[in-house]
Amino acid sequence: MNKIVVATGNEGKAKEFRELLKGLNVTILTLRDFPDVIMPEENGYTFAANALLKARAVAERTGLPALGDDSGLEVDFLKGAPGVYSARFAGEPSNDLLNNQKLLQLMAGVPWDKRTARFRCALALIEPEGKEHIAEGMVEGFIAYELKGEYGFGYDPLFYLPAYGKTYAELGEELKNGLSHRALAVKNLRPVLRELFGEKQEL
Q: Which residues does UniProt mark as catalytic (predicted)?
């Protein structure tokens, strides 16, 4: 049976990946299936570097193909912050609400035209024999003035998409999974995934 390990213990992210990888002939596992795997410190200076760190660690410890991702928010007014520190912006342990509150405090009084931001995602796929692939995705938006929406996780309630007039967290899972930065990265990586695993045959 084809298997791949997504290097995350975040259930929200794992659910998103299961949806994004739907159609491939592969069983998707996560770190919850390998509780003994200890992840390395995410000390890379780029999303791609951190994604590789995760994927390499999981592939080495499980012997299976591994998919690592690192993603985050870049706010122009904050000179690209929180960037690779998005998950722990307000400190350790990671807390979505505290991260969002800190971002709102730092953006207090900033006019709309200066609230531009983007979500970036880098994916690293490590094949069993060690071959590595990188794919990236990016979505441009704005930082909203307040938290809105009940879907998603992380900064989704603050990331506003002008084309839809909604935040990520207001879009709903199905729509978000079709246009998110992670969806774009998976789309760019899909030819490699398809070659590696094939696609499910319709009965």
A: 70 (proton acceptor)
